[in-house]
Amino acid sequence: MSATLKVGSYTLKSRLLVGTGKYKDLEETGRAIAASGADVVTMAVRRTNLGQDPKSPNLLDVISPDRYTLLPNTAGCHTALDAVRTCRLARELLDGHNLVKLEVISASRTLYPDVVETLEAARVLVKEGFEVMVYTSDDPLIAKELEAIGCVAVMPLGAPIGSGLGLRNPYNIREILENLTVPVIVDAGVGTASDATIAMELGCHGVLMNTAIAEARDPVKMAEAMKLAIESGRLAFEAGRMPRRRYADASSPETGLIQ
Asked: Residue ranges of the alpha helices (H) in the chain?
């Protein structure tokens, strides 16, 4: 299997990226993330204490920047202005760290990406020197535009955030994969290990997930399952699946049979 994944100036050993929300406590967060084998850990800057409040538990006590690549995100932002401000805050809190996950969501119950605000924020952040991994819709044209702006990874949703529905439109994901040169990482919608494997078998370069692990009955076991699912799916993609056929094709040759 391809050993590493290059995202901007970062080289990752794992193609599984994980979040930090919805766990029962920080201790469980740390154990599950360790079991996942992930290199990249994302956290919502507006909802997570990264040192803003010295009196509260700090996520960095269990997710060490020495061990993981931190990916501060703009979860909860509904405008480009809020998203840009949040990324600037993250850079200040993390001593100049420039890798960010941009997400600008609509106020609807689906939390669908607001692509107009996303495009605007992406332009500003790239100009300011951020390495932007961007959460977006599964629209191939929008994905191409985000690549043209200079985002280092494009992250189309598989299904609505936290839904666990799996990939609802693999055809659009495949179209994005065929037209982009930057990594394509499915973000949102994964519910179980088979969903992650399907994404990787399509040729996605990675999968980012949070709820599927954190809301499992046993988050630590699910984290390990996701690790194996990502590895299995990538291996299957690189191996190349057999062609689909309408009719049977015998495993053993039918010529030269013993009479």
From this structure: 26-36, 80-93, 115-127, 140-149, 170-179, 193-202, 211-214, 219-239
